[in-house]
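Revision sheet: structure tokens.
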Amino acid sequence: MRFWDASAIVPLLVHQTASAAVGGEAERDQELAVWWGTGVECVSAFTRLEREGEITTTELVAAIDNLQSLAASWVEIQPVARIRKTAERLLRTHPLRAADALQLAAAIVAADGDPRSLPFVTLDERLARAAEREGFPVVEPA
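Predicted:
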């Protein structure tokens, strides 16, 4: 199992430069753990890509459908008080946005407090650095 940040899931579902590399990582380990808000973050990214003309409305609809299929098989870390408290600590420790702190906190919970035990897949450099500092083996598909 690996913990996947939304930045790495989006190219699984919408063709982007990183799609082949991210697809290779997904092939290596098909058991994904994500935080509770990942679906919302992905839909936000898809709609932004459509607004910016990078994908069509048809591709947007397909991406959302594929996201729902993928979500049926992933392990979703629910929003609990422990995640909120950990995210608050992470915001004081690392230069993260709130959603990234929540994702990293969810990964810490998924790893049962031992970040070394759970690879963290992301394309977000700032989040990758924070995850490394927390002890996660970071996978940055290239």
